[in-house]
Amino acid sequence: MSRRKLGQLEAEVLAVLAGADGYLSPAELRERLAGGPAHTTVNTVLFRLLDKKMVERLPRGRGFVYRLVADESGLAAERMFTHLRLAHNPSSVLGQFVQGLNESEEAALRAFLAKRGEGT
Residue 105: which residues within 8 A CB-CB, separation 6 or more? Predict the structure, then answer.
């Protein structure tokens, strides 16, 4: 089994929490993450996200449950902006990004750009 970088796991945890209807325990989170990361690894990610004020937690039983309080789309966009701004050739990065889109993602991007071009 290949190991994920902590930043990748953090992004996956954020995505799972964003899709949840409420609070999740670390065990519930683990069940929804691909590859079954260790319980301690999930807790480490949750503690870091709590420290960054991206999640909140409440006591439940003998442990805690967590939910996302940050805007997931804003966080993802900021990561993309950061990589784009640090690139030597931002146009090439954008080209690679667009080439990697599936049909529905490309259609959503085209629709957004068209709407933006209309001034709305």
Answer: none
What gap in Å lies between CA 118 and CA 120, rounded to an integer?
Answer: 6
Q: Does residue 103 have a pLDDT over 90?
A: yes
- For residues 7 and 20, give the distance between their C-alpha atoms in angstroms, rounded to a whole number: 20
Q: How far apart are alpha carbons 2 and 18 in whole angstroms?
A: 25
CA distances in angstroms from 103 to 62, 64, 95, 114, listed in the order given: 46, 40, 15, 16
Q: Please give the full DSSP string across 3-25, using - where no structure is assigned.
A: PPPHHHHHHHHHHHHHH-SS-B-
Query: Rg of the chain's alpha carbons, rounded to an integer?
Result: 17
Rounded to two decimals, the pTM is 0.69
| DSSP state for residue 33 in the 8-state scheme | S
Helix, strand, or coil here: 100? coil
